[in-house]
Amino acid sequence: MKTSGKEYRKEVSRLFGILILILYFYGMMINSIQGEIIGAFSGTETSGFTLSPLKNIGAVFSPLGLGLPLAVILFLLLFSERGSLWLKRLISGTRSVWDPERKIEILEEGTYGTSGWLTRPEMQDAFEIAPLGQLDLPVMGKLDEESYLGLKSLHGMNKNIMVYGAPGTGKSRGFVSPFILQAAKRGESMIITDAKAELYEKYAHWLGRQGYTVKAFNLLDFENSDAWNVLCDISADRNLVQPVAQIIIDNTSSETEKTGFWTESEKNLLMALLLYVQSLTDPKTGELLPASERSLGAIYRLLSACPILQIDDLFRRLPADHPALGPYGIFKQAGHQIWGNIATGLGSRLSVFQNELVDTITKYNEIDLELPGKQKCAYFCILSDQNDSMGFLSSLFFSMLFLRLSDYARKEGVHGKLPVEVNVILDEFSNVGGKLLNFKQTISTVRSRGINCQVIVQSIAQLADRYPKTEWLDIVANCDTQLFLGCNDSMTAKEISDRCGFVTVRTSGSSSRVSSVFSGNTGGSSVSSGSVRRPLMTPDEILRLPKNQALLFVRSLRPARIFKIEPEEHPESGNLVQARASDHIPRWRQEQQEKENRKSAQSYHPSKENEQAGSGEKESRENQVLTGKADRRDGIDCETWTEINPDQL
C-alpha cells in the first residue's frame, strides 16, 4: 500500500521532532558536564544546566559535544572484539570474517584453506529462495521464516540426495515429510520405504485426493498388503531370473556364505525352478496357469512336497529347448548324493512362505512396477525396523523396481527417460530391508532414466556396515546433494568435518621478558600474530551442532549452515487426514470376502448348489488357499506338473 504525500510529510515531521529532542537532551547533558568541569578548575560552584534550546543544541557541536562520541567509538575499537578485528583488517589490509560463536577470525587470504560458509548471494546459484508456499522444488531447509531453500536442477548435477541423521534429529519430519509434499506439487511419483507405516498413515489419504495411485506393500501387517508376484515380472522379461535368484541368495546368506559351492548350487537350482514354475501350464488346456499358481510360494511347496528325485524326473521330461534345463544342468554337476542337501538348503531360504499370508501377498499381482513411470503413483513399502526376516522381499521389490523402470525408460521413454519422474525415498536405508542388488551401480545410472534416489541413514558407520569395503563410498559419491542433521558417532562426525573443508584463521600470541633485580635490563613484552590451518568445523563441533540447525553440501559449492524445517510449516499440512494402515483392504481380500458372501448366499439355495457342483469344488479349493486353510501340499502332484508347452513361455 502506497503512502500519500501528506502522510509522508507527517512521518518526516515526526522523525525530525524526535531528532531535535535527542539533540536537545544530549546538549543539556554536555552543558551540565561542561559546567562541572569549569567549576572544578575555577574553584567556584558553576552550573552549566540550562533549558535554553539554542544553548543546548549548540553544545552538541562544541568540542566536548563532538569529542565524547568519538572517544566512545575509539574505546570500542580498541577494547571490543569486533573493534579490534576491524582495526587489524584496516592495518593489515586483509579481509576476514569473524565467527562470534567459536571466537575465530577466518581469513580470506586462503593460505592454508579456502573453505567457509556459503553466503546468501552465493546461494542464489543453486537454490531458489522464497516463502515455502511459493516453492515447488525440493526444500532442504531455511535461512529464516520467509526464506526457504528450494534445490534447483542444475546442469551436470544429479538429483540424488544423501541425508545423515541420528535418531531424533528429524529425518522423517525435517526432510521426508516436506519432500513428499513438494514432490506431489510437481506431480512426480514416489516409492517410499516406511518403517512402522507412519508415513503411509499420514500421507496415503491426502495423496489419493491429489490423484495418485496409492499402493502398500505391507511386510509388517500382511493382511493389509497389496499383493506383488515377482514371477509376473519374470514372465514379462526372462532376463530377470538371474538377478531375482541372486537377490534371494544374497539376502538369506551371511557374509561368509555369499560365495562358495553350496551357495552357487542353490542359486542354480533356484534359477531352474523359477523358469520352470513361471512356465507351468494346465495339463488339459495347455494354457499358462493363473499367476496365483506360479509364485515363489509354489516353488517352496514343490521343494517341500516332492523328493529331489521326483523333481529331477520333472526336469527330465521337459523339452530339450526349455530354458530351465540350462541352470538345472549346472546344478546336476554336483554329485547326486548331495542333491537333497542342496534342495533342503534352498527350501530353508524360502521358509518364510510357510506363512500363508506371505504366500498370499506374493501370489497375486496388484502392484505394477512400471506404472510409476507412466503416471503419478505413491507406493509405500512398509517394513519392520526390528525384524528383518522379510528383508529379502523388500530388497527384491526395490531391485525389480529399478530394473523394470530402467528397462521401460530405455524402450518406451522420451529420449531414454521416464514420462513421469520417479523419486525413490529410502528412509532408514540401512535399518529396514535387505541389501539392494548392485546399488552402487544402480544409483549412478538411474539419473539418466528420470529416477532419483533419496537415501536416508542414521550414520555413515551404519551405511558402511550394510555396504562394506568401498561400496558405501561409491553410494555417497553419487549423491551431489548431502544434508547433515546431527550425529552421535565419531566416524560420521569425522567424515562431515572433512567434508566441510579447511579454513585459514588468524592467531595471536604474546610474550614477556622478565629481568633480574640486579641486571640493568628492563622487562619487555611483544605481541605477534599469524595464520594457521583449521577445519571449518572440528568433529566435536559437528557433534555439538545445535538441534535446530543442519549442514547442507552441494557439489562444487561451499557448505551452508541452515535451519531445519518442520512439516507443520508447509501450507498443505493442515489438509492432511490420518488414515490407519490396518483399515486398508487390498483387492485380494475383497475378492476373498466376495467369495465368502457368495458361499453364504448359496447355502440358502440348495438347488443352485447342485447345479454348480463342479465349479463350487474349484471355488472352495481356491478359497481355502486364499484364506490359508488349505494343506500346503494341496494341489501339488509331481506327476501332473510335467505338462509344459514351450510355445506358451
UniProtKB/TrEMBL annotation:
Compartment(s) of residence: Cell membrane
Topological type in the membrane: Multi-pass membrane protein
Biased composition (Basic and acidic residues): 587-599, 606-622
Extent of Low complexity compositional bias: 514-532
Keyword Membrane attributed: yes
GO cellular component: plasma membrane
Annotated spans, Disordered: 514-533, 587-649
UniProt KW keywords: Cell membrane, Membrane, Transmembrane, Transmembrane helix
TM segment ranges: 12-33, 57-79
Keyword Membrane: yes
Main localisation: membrane
InterPro entries: P-loop_NTPase, T4SS-coupling_protein, TraG/VirD4
PANTHER family, alphabetized: CONJUGATIVE TRANSFER: DNA TRANSPORT (PTHR37937:SF1)
Family note: Belongs to the VirD4/TraG family.
Name of the protein this chain belongs to: Type IV secretory system conjugative DNA transfer family protein
Organism: Candidatus Gallacutalibacter pullicola
